[in-house]
Structure formats: C-alpha cells, structure tokens
Amino acid sequence: MNLSNAKNPPLCRLPEVVIQGSGIYLPSKVLTNHDLEKMVNTTDEWITERTGIKERRIAGEKETPSEMGAMAAMMALQNAGLTAEDLDMIIVATTTPDTIFPSTACYIQHKIGARTIPSFDIQAACSGFIYGFILASHFIACRSARHILLIGAEKLSAIVDWEDRSTCVLFGDGAGAFIISLGENSPDQLSFDIGADGSQWQILYIPAGGSKLPLTAQNINHKLHFLHMVGKKVFRLAIDSMEQSLTRCIEKAGISAEHIACIIPHQANLRIIEALSERLGIPGEKFFVNVEKYGNTSSACIPIAFHEAVASQRIKEGDIVLFVSFGAGITWGSVLFRYKAKA
Ligand code: UT7
C-alpha cells in the first residue's frame, strides 16, 4: 500500500536541536515466555519464532506511567547536567495515561518538581515518541523553549487481555525520556517524516473507555476495554509504512542509507524488523534490537532502545542515527539526526 503523506513534502530540517540527555525506567518484574506458558495456551518456541520476544517487564500497582516517566525523567535530567527547574516544557507520549485527564505530563511535572511550565500529552500510539520529538524540536527551533522533557511511558499490561494469547505475549511496560535542547550551530537534525492514515483505525484499537463507548459492566464483560488487533494486517502495514517513511526521510536529508550508523526501529516484532532490513537492502547489523528483553512498549520503545544503544557504545558521538516507528491510527514517523552528546 502506498502511504505517501504529501504531494510536495516541505524540506524537513531542524538544525539546532540536540538530545542533551536520556533516561529509562523498567519495572523489575520480568515475565518470561515460560511464565506465559502457564497462563495461556502458548509456547516459548511459538513466541520466539513468531516475534523474537523472550521476556517483557510488567509494572506493579504503583508503577503508573507517570511514576515510570518521572523516574526516567530524573535520570535524563541527571545525564543532561540539568535540574527540573531548567525545563521549559514537558511532553508525554502515551497510549496508557494514568487517567483520561489530567494529562500524565501534569502528574510528572508535579512529581519531578518542575516549574509551572506547559505540560501535555500527545497520542499517536507507538509513533508517539517520534511525533513528540518532532513537535519538541519545532518549539526549540522557534526559540520558544530551551530545554524540553519528552517522555514515552506505557503500562500496556493494563490494557491487554491476559486470556488472549494472540496479543498478551507481545507487550511490556516501561518508560524512556529525552531532554531536547537548543544546540549551537550544530547541523544535528537532518530530516524527518511523519504521517497517518485514519482509514485504518479499526486494525488496532480499544473499543470502550472513551466517550463513544463509556465503560459499563456490559462493555467490560465483552472485553471491549482491552486492546483489539488484526495482527496480520498490522504486520503488513507496519513494514509498508516504516519502509516508505524511512525512505522519504533519507531522501529529504539527501544522504544514502550507507551513511547511517544505527537504525532504531519500533520494537514490535523481530520479523517486522528483519523484513524491513531485507526490503530496504540495509544490513541487519545496522538495526538496534532489544525486543527480546522488553517486547513492545509502544511509545517507550524508541527512547529505551536509544538509551541502551548509547550506553553500550552502539551509538557514538557524530554517528548518523535514524528512528522509525509505526502504530495504531495508523501512524508512522522517522527522524534522522547526527548524534551529539551535549549541546
Ligand atoms: O505496535 C504495533 C503492535 N502490533 C504489532 O506489531 C503486531 C503485528 N503482528 C504480528 O506481530 C503478528 O501478526 C503476530 C505475532 C501477532 C501473529 O503472528 P502471525 O504469524 O501473523 O500468526 P497468526 O496470527 O497468523 O496465527 C498463526 C497461528 C494461529 O493458529 P491457527 O489458526 O493457524 O491454528 C493462531 O491462533 O498461531 C496461533 N497463535 C498462537 N499460538 C501459540 C496466535 N498467538 C499464539 C500464541 N501462541 N501466543
């Protein structure tokens, strides 16, 4: 399917934006495939072969997205050499907010002791962090903010049906945070591409719990408050949308794929990442993968993977890095930048 999002795409370049620090939080409780064998009719072999996932983290009662997000934020601030008082804005990407309102960002502002700065959530499902990255970069590029805290925080264990083997094995909980800052004449963000195709909303959604179908005992009995997914269709569109978005992003930057040192794809399924690598003719070693440890943590996948890639020296100063994601909506996005440790 052709998923082009603009007839004449604008030159998408935000040159003075840097990731000043990153942080992550992962719940300590590990749920392995063998644990799942005792819960639903599945096997470690099936999950490993069909998804690449071996285990995932499950949040405890007090580990809400705001709590996990605040922990990741504190680590990111420390790594950036900043305090919460230095922040000018908080943006949280989440599909599993603590409450419908107020926003998870407002809870986090209070928890980390930030000033009364603008704080809000955005919703683009698994592409949320990339949408947030691009949004934050625009505020920075317009000089409307100097330091923005961007968080992807998810508690997917709260919205999956633990009796449905086709979905419950795929997801996990966690949070990742970036401090996005104004750099100095640094050509760091090379290009980006985002888009959505709302005609595909029905392949991945939660029917009840919003104002269209409020939570009632009957809706809960029918399991309408859980995530519903047409797995095979999502699988195909995931590959199509990421392939096309990544290609557009590279074209806009005027570089070739060989210049990219590391690609951080959405961590939903190893087979999706392998198919993407094959279709694009980009060697598998260029893709950073940690899906075996955490499963799909939706908007938290990219910041968690980036943080681990930097910590393990898989990404080094000066490397060209590409983020690419897709999610419910459907949505997609990619961003290409040169990694620089500090502004
Ligand atoms: O962020 C976006 C979130 N979602 C995704 O990225 C999901 C994208 N889709 C996928 O990753 C894959 O479609 C799945 C992993 C969900 C499923 O893999 P598949 O290769 O598409 O399997 P399938 O749905 O065609 O199912 C094949 C068989 C079925 O049995 P029958 O009908 O052939 O007898 C399923 O009932 O596998 C069965 N099955 C399982 N068996 C053991 C489905 N889930 C399981 C399971 N354990 N957990």
Question: Which term fits the overall shape?
Answer: globular
Estimate nothing, just give the exact number of structural domains: 1
The level 1 CATH classification is Alpha Beta
Small molecules (ligands, ions, cofactors) in the structure: oxa(dethia)-CoA
How would you state the average pLDDT, rounded? Answer: 94
Q: How much of the sequence is in beta strands?
A: 15-25%
Largest sheet: 5 strands, mixed
Distance between the termini: 40 Å
What integer value in Å does the Rg equal? 19 Å
Our count of helices gives: 11
Order of helices and strands: EEHHEHEHEHEHEEEHEHEHHHEE
**So, the CATH homologous superfamily?**
Thiolase/Chalcone synthase
CATH architecture: 3-Layer(aba) Sandwich
- Order of strands side by side in the largest beta sheet? 1-7-6-4-5
Helix/strand/pairing category = alpha/beta
Query: CATH fold name, please?
Result: Peroxisomal Thiolase, Chain A, domain 1
Entry summary:
The chain is of the alpha/beta class.
